[in-house]
Write a structure and sequence with these properties.
Strand content: 15-25%
Radius of gyration: 18 Å
Number of strands: 8
CATH class: Alpha Beta
Distance between the termini: 29 Å
Number of helices: 6
Structural class: alpha+beta
Number of domains: 1
CATH superfamily: archaeoglobus fulgidus dsm 4304 superfamily
Helix content: 25-40%
Order of helices and strands: HEEEHEHEHEEEHH
């Protein structure tokens, strides 16, 4: 893509992103969210897009739905997809959201009773350059509550992986402990969460849509058996199995 063409795409996406950003709901909207033990929550989804090594166009779009609070897999959908939108930093959602939205819509059409009541997204929500990451994008377009859970810190809006940040991580004593990720403006964009007693490395939780930050952190912790919350961990597990099969099939066809 030429520099001029990319500039046009960025301008269009910035405008669309700003419009969609106005639709994000940063508070609890569901009854189960107001319950200390999430009474009424029965299905939690996880989504991710995984690429075949050396290929940044063909990917596996994955959706899993787990029971809650047992965290057993109820539904799994893996689809190989070809991405048509270009990769531009800060606009990842424009590449990935359509495939993940398709997976949710397929489930809603085929087995609506299994549609998740909340989706954990492997990525960021409000903790983003323009406060509209993948979890926000998917949440607004699907209408479902969404939570962004990132494994690595996005150094954005004045949040940095500096000595202070490392000291805050070291101060997290047990699973469930967290500290805010505060932008230079003073706005809290998310929280670093120690997700389990056995893992000292945090995950980074932010609001996607239709959930408050405190509830998002509490929910993420309740879904963790290990460092990564189970809906996302199961997505990775199923995705890697599927992409390995696809890679093997491709090699055999050569």
């Amino acid at each position: 893509m030429s520099a001029f063409a990319e500039e046009d795409v960025v301008k269009r996406w910035e405008s669309e992103q700003a419009s969609l950003r106005q639709q994000v709901v940063e508070e609890d909207t569901e009854e189960w969210q107001r319950s200390l033990n999430f009474s009424g929550l029965e299905r939690v989804g996880g989504v991710d897009l995984s690429f075949i090594k050396g290929d940044d166009v063909n990917a596996c779009a994955q959706l899993v739905v787990l029971s809650y609070p047992d965290l057993e897999v109820l539904y799994e959908d893996s689809q190989m997809v070809t991405l048509t939108a270009p990769y531009i930093a800060g606009f990842l959602a424009f590449r990935e959201t359509p495939c993940l939205l398709d997976a949710l819509q397929r489930l809603e059409k085929s087995q609506p009773a299994l549609l998740p009541q909340v989706v954990l997204v492997d990525g960021n929500g409000l903790f983003h350059y323009r406060e509209f990451g993948l979890a926000c994008h998917l949440g607004v377009l699907s209408g479902l509550p969404c939570v962004g859970v990132a494994k690595n810190l996005l150094q954005v809006q004045g949040v940095a992986k500096d000595n202070e940040h490392q000291s805050q991580i070291a101060a997290l004593q047990k699973g469930g402990d967290s500290f805010p990720l505060t932008a230079a403006s003073g706005k809290v964009l998310g929280k670093a969460l120690r997700s389990s007693d056995s893992s000292s490395k945090p995950v980074y939780v932010s609001v996607g849509h239709k959930i408050s930050l405190d509830t998002a952190v509490r929910l993420t912790h309740s879904c963790c058996r290990y460092r990564v919350p189970e809906p996302i961990r199961q997505v990775h597990k199923h995705t890697h199995t599927h992409t390995h099969k696809q890679t093997d099939a491709h090699i055999k066809s050569l």
